[in-house]
What we know:
The chain is an alpha/beta fold. It has helices at residues 17-29, 49-54, 66-78, 89-95, 97-105, 134-139, 152-162, 210-222, 241-251, 266-277, 298-304, 309-321, and strands at 35-39, 59-61, 82-86, 112-115, 145-147, 169-172, 194-197, 202-206, 228-232, 235-237, 253-261, 282-288. It starts with 16 loop residues before the first helix and ends with a helix.
Amino acid sequence: MPKGFTFNVFDVDRFATREMYGKVLAQIGQTNRDIVVLTADLMRSNKTGDFAKVCPERFFNFGIAEQNMMAAAAGLAVNGKLPYVSTYAAFASLRCAEQVRTDIAYPKLPVRIVSSHAGLSMGNGGTTHHATEDIAITRSMANMTVIVPADANECAKAVIESITYPGPIYMRLGRGAEPIVYKADYEFKIGKAVTVREGRDVTVIACGIAVMAAIKAARKLEAEGISVRIIDMHTIKPLDTEAILKAARETGAIITVEEHNIIGGLGGAVAETLADAGLGIRFLRLGIPDIYSTIGQPDDLYQRYGLDQDGVFRAIKSVLQKG
């Protein structure tokens, strides 16, 4: 943690990850002059405007030209700068896929693509603005690190650690006031999962907003004598395979929960790990099925696709019944 950095949200229940991103970036940018920030006409939405207020000479608004923005970020990185590039997740991963792959990931440049409004968090913004393929796209790019913070406090830690982490990073943030998972300080390391809760009967591996949903479901199941281990897999790539295999051997059942299509995301990454290790256990991927998500308020969509605490609760019961 940089000297003098004190901001946290340990005293509240909900706080938007993108709000924290803006505050952290503005604070560290005042002392680290290599940091430059690029956005595509979204400085209010993704909170990069906080950086623009204190470091206007290192802030660049590209307008609705996301692909050009990614190429420019690559150029800045080649010349020794540390670019943080922000737009909506659907644009960063889909519209800019070629530029991210060829200009940034291929030469392994230290560009930090911090996307907001990921998953279903755009809600009524429309299906075209729901980012439910971005993890699959970015984790399939060689050299790319993929991070999905569980809450604002974890977002702060991820941004801080990203300063010195090698190569390109894709970081996925939400839109609204996400529930706070971490009410006390804890150790965070890119590529190292956090065991939020120990358990012996089943393991839930989650990322992003799904971590809190899993915690609430586990508390409810505890009353029935069911012990649920919860792993916050904040880094999808590089994946903490050791934590996955340990959980598989010790609990014998794993459920993955993510605000993403079940193909190619966290669930796919965990499934690949289990298959490579030859472990045949009870396993379920919970996320968006192979469809285009419908339009609606985020909370309604989480309920529709089983990503709220009741949905996770039902999924756990279903997996355990197979045993």
